[in-house]
Amino acid sequence: MSEQRIKTSTPIMPKWDPTRTMKANVFYGTCDVRVETVPRPMVTHPKDALIRVTATTICGSDLHLYHNEIPEMMKGDILGHEFMGIIEDVGDQVKDRKKGQRVVVCFDIACGTCDYCKRGEFTGCDTTNDSVTMEKMYGYRLSGIFGYSHLTGGYPGGQAEYVRVPFADINTLPVPDSLPDEKVLFLSDIACTSWYANECAQVGKDDKVAIWGGGPIGQFSARWAMIRGASSVVVVETVEARRKMAESYPGVKSLNPDGIDVVETLKKMLPGGPDACIDATGFRYSKTLVHKVERTIKAETDAVDILEEIIRSCRKYGRIGLIADYVGYANHFPIGALMEKGKLSILIRGGQCPCQRYWKDLLGRIEKGQIDPSFIITHRPAFEDIPKAYATFDKKEDGMIKNFIRPPSAVAYT
C-alpha cells in the first residue's frame, strides 16, 4: 500500500475506553464464539460516530467466519456486520449526523470521497481497507467490512453493545421512529443485497426467475423479484421450513433439489428456462463427491456445483446475479456452457452490494408498505445466547432462518 494511502486511510483499530466495558460476541476459533466483556470503543477519527447498538443479527455469511474459512480471522475479533442503533458520540468533522439520532449502519465501510465512492461503487472504496493479502488475492483491495476478518480491514463488528463507525455521514442511514427496528435493521445488508441480486440479474416485468438458496438473501430476493414484476419465481432449497416461507408469498414456488435433475425440472416449471437466475448459496455447498474431496484436501477453496447448475439451467441469453460468497479458487468451472449459450454469452454480474446506493430507495419502499422485512425473523435469542444461535443456524435446525437480537444496553423501539 502506498505511503499516501497509509496517510489517508482510516485507522483500522479503534481506540478503546479504559474505563468502560461492553458485551460483545468474540471469535476464538473454528465453531467457537463467545459472549464476553471487552473494552468499549471510542471515537477515533474526526469523521467517526460511536453507535449504541439497539439491534443486531447473524448473517448467513457469518457462518463462513464461524467455520474459519475466511482468511485472516484472529482470536478476539468481534463479529457481526448487520446492526443499527443510536448515535452516542460523533467526531468534530461529522456534518450530517448528530447525537441521539437513530440510524442503520451498512455492512460495507466507504470513505465517500475516493473515485470509487464518487461513482457509487462503495464496496470498491480505495480508502478503508489496507489488506495486503486481499490485494494479492484479487488484484485490488475492496472496502472494509464490519466484523469480517482482517482481510476486509479488521474492523470490530456489530454483535456488540457499542461500535465505532468510520465516515459516519456516508455509512449510516437515519430512520424514522415510525418504523420499528425489526423493519429497518436488514437495510444494513440483506434487504439491500437481495435487491442488488435482482439488479445484477436485471429482473423485470414478466421474467421467470430461479433462485438457489432459501436463506435470508434468497427469501428477500424472491419477494423483490415479484415486486419488480416477475411473473413467477422458483426457490431451489433443501430445507422444508425455508421452502414453506418462500411459498408463503404469492407467485413464489419452491423446489427441493435432492435426488432430482434440477435443470430438467426447472425447464418444466419455467417453460423455456429461467430468464434470470440468482445464486444465494455460496462456496461451502458441495453437491458432488469430487468437489467435497477437493475442498477437503485444499485442492480448491470454493465448490461450484451449484453455480454450474445455475449456468446450465439459465436460458440462452439469460442473466445471472451472483451475490453468494465465493472467496478463492475453484476447479471444473463450466466456462464452455457459459460462453456457448449466447452470442454475447449469458450475462453474469455480482459482487458485494454497495448498500449506500440503494438503501434510501428501499427505506421508502418499506415506508410505503411494499415489503415488511420483519417477515424474515424466526428467532429472538438473548444476547448471551448468540453462540447457541450460531450453532443452530449453522445446522439449519429448529426452522431458524433469521435472528433478531437486542444487546443488553439496547433501547427498544417497538
UniProtKB/TrEMBL annotation:
<feature type="domain" description="Alcohol dehydrogenase-like N-terminal">
    <location>
        <begin position="46"/>
        <end position="171"/>
    </location>
</feature>
<dbReference type="InterPro" id="IPR011032">
    <property type="entry name" value="GroES-like_sf"/>
</dbReference>
<dbReference type="Pfam" id="PF08240">
    <property type="entry name" value="ADH_N"/>
</dbReference>
<dbReference type="InterPro" id="IPR036291">
    <property type="entry name" value="NAD(P)-bd_dom_sf"/>
</dbReference>
<dbReference type="GO" id="GO:0008270">
    <property type="term" value="F:zinc ion binding"/>
</dbReference>
<keyword id="KW-0862">Zinc</keyword>
<dbReference type="GO" id="GO:0016491">
    <property type="term" value="F:oxidoreductase activity"/>
</dbReference>
<dbReference type="InterPro" id="IPR013154">
    <property type="entry name" value="ADH-like_N"/>
</dbReference>
<keyword id="KW-0479">Metal-binding</keyword>
<dbReference type="InterPro" id="IPR002328">
    <property type="entry name" value="ADH_Zn_CS"/>
</dbReference>
<keyword id="KW-0560">Oxidoreductase</keyword>
<protein>
    <recommendedName>
        <fullName>Alcohol dehydrogenase-like N-terminal domain-containing protein</fullName>
    </recommendedName>
</protein>
